[in-house]
Amino acid sequence: MKKHIYLIAVILSVLFYSCTKTATSSDQLNEQVGSSRIPVTSAMAFTSANSYTVTGNVRVYQKDGKLVLALENFKSTNGPDLRVYISKEMQPVNFIELGRLRSVQGNQLYDIPGNPDFNTYKFAVIHCQQFNRVFGFATIK
């Protein structure tokens, strides 16, 4: 009986913490970033990792003097604790966390704190913090 209760609790927690919301359309992303956006980097495609699938592009914009990371045409395998990082490595050791992944599909924006050097922070990473697994990464250029 205890095993069944534990199993149900685990399943419910995974469902509760998984990323299932729908993100914004291309038009909504353009409205959010605004016409004052200035591309800082080129659009770079995600590479899947560790048997997970991540597709789409990443680009950094400057908006109102702040940096914003945009996930464009994004789609990812679902996971229990997915985070968005900019990192010095593909496997994040030295990174800046931008927040929880808002959705496993669609366009999304994440504020980038400070003014990181993209010659050093070369990767955007989708990472499962709970299990320390990279789902996908893209080079920031």
Give an overview in words.
The protein has one domain. It contains two helices and ten strands, in the order H-H-E-E-E-E-E-E-E-E-E-E. It starts with a helix and ends with a strand. With 141 residues, the protein is an alpha+beta fold. Helix content is 17%, strand content 40%.
Give the arrangement of secondary structure elements.
Layout: H1 2-17, H2 26-33, E1 38-39, E2 44-45, E3 47-48, E4 54-63, E5 66-76, E6 82-87, E7 95-100, E8 108-112, E9 123-128, E10 133-139
Antiparallel strand pairs: 1-4, 2-4, 3-10, 4-5, 5-8, 6-7, 6-9, 9-10
How many structural units, i.e. domains? 1
- Weakly predicted, low-confidence segments: 10-24
Q: What percent of residues adopt helix (DSSP H or I)?
A: 10-25%
Number of E-type strands: 10
Largest sheet: 5 strands, antiparallel
Range of strand content: 35-45%
Distance between the termini: 54 Å
Q: With helices defined by DSSP (H or I, 4 residues minimum), what is the helix count?
A: 2
How large is the radius of gyration?
A: 16 Å
Mean pLDDT: 83
What structural class should be given to the helix and strand makeup? alpha+beta
Tell me, what's the shape? globular
In short:
It contains two helices and ten strands; from the N terminus they run H-H-E-E-E-E-E-E-E-E-E-E.
What characteristics describe this protein?
single chain; 141 residues; five-stranded antiparallel β-sheet; 2 helices; 10 strands; globular
